[in-house]
Amino acid sequence: MKCQTKSWCKWGYTLLGSLLMALLIKIFFITTCFIPHKGMQNTLYEGEGIWVNKWSYGWRVPFLSLFGYHRVGNVAVKKGDVVVYNKPVDKPKKESVWIDFSPLCISRCIGLPGDTLYLDEVFFYAEEPDIEADNKRLYSYPIEAEEAIVQALSQMKMTENVLAGYTKDGKFVRSFSEDEYNGVVNLLENTDLLIPLHETINAEIHPYVIPKAGINITIEAWNIHLLCNAILRHEGKDAYVKDGKLFVNGKPIKTYRFTQNYFWMVSDEPLNVNDSRLYGLIPESHIVGKAIGIWWGTQIDRFFKRIV
């Protein structure tokens, strides 16, 4: 059917061209997403919209399940980068999961391929990374100090900072960034009241080597389940643990050579475990790009702010 007027045809072609251009930009260059939770505070806030540069680490060819994993112009991820990646699925890769249609996650990279991280029994980083002052840490304090701390938070207009939990010996736990911590202790005039939680936990610490493509990783009692999970989900092989041994394709192994690079991702907010503590090792094939800026902010001064 012909257009009734040239004007309508012109507007129709313009709209179609604009939609096509937006789609091409989203596929090949920059995509957008919203922050669904408070896991990256104070770097990013719940509800903010961000830009993700798909070329920060090289452009990942779409439809991985059809064409396999390929990346054009591969660039290394840097420690401290805020990375957007596809959520590792519950099913192993051999069941033809469409990785690039999996929900997006956002975390900060603290472990690169070949790095050794010292983690406790619940995969908390034993030597906390000092990347940005806005990164939050967990602190414990005596129950009798609760009223004073609540008053200090009220003076600082931090009423959203809620109680995070309790330690085994009955102390209270809250999370603070470096600036928030300094503000609270200055108001309380007591630098010994808030104790970093990792200093109060007597957990066993072990070294975890982050897998790098082509490098053999030794199977240890403390990393066996983590490595089994990665081999089953991302290496496309049948893997299971039995009698303290790791079996791959039915054979017990003492070392394993991974086929791709892996990363350890964590949230800036330590209470949020939507990161490697929940999903395990994040394979290179799941990485979409680097978060580079905020296009929709929760406050007027956060619009178009650069993400670091």
Textual characterization of the structure:
With 308 residues, the protein is α+β, with helices and mostly antiparallel strands. The chain is built from seven helices and 20 strands. It has helices at 6-28, 64-67, 146-155, 178-188, 197-200, 224-234, 276-279, and strands at 30-34, 49-53, 59-60, 71-72, 82-86, 104-111, 116-119, 136-141, 165-166, 172-177, 195-196, 206-209, 216-218, 239-242, 245-248, 251-253, 255-257, 262-266, 282-283, 287-296. α3 (146-155) packs across α4 (178-188). The termini are far apart. 28% of the residues are buried.
In short:
With 308 residues, the chain is α+β, with helices and mostly antiparallel strands. Helices cover 22% and strands 28% of the residues.
The shape is: flat
Major sheet strand order: 1-2-20-5-6-18-19
Helix content: 10-25%
Low-confidence stretches: none
Q: Compute the number of strand runs.
A: 20
Give the averaged pLDDT, no decimals. 83
Give the secondary structure arrangement, pairings included.
Elements: H1 6-28, E1 30-34, E2 49-53, E3 59-60, H2 64-67, E4 71-72, E5 82-86, E6 104-111, E7 116-119, E8 136-141, H3 146-155, E9 165-166, E10 172-177, H4 178-188, E11 195-196, H5 197-200, E12 206-209, E13 216-218, H6 224-234, E14 239-242, E15 245-248, E16 251-253, E17 255-257, E18 262-266, H7 276-279, E19 282-283, E20 287-296
Antiparallel strand pairs: 1-2, 2-20, 3-4, 5-6, 5-20, 6-18, 7-12, 8-10, 8-11, 9-10, 13-17, 14-15, 15-16, 18-19
Helix pairs in contact: 3-4
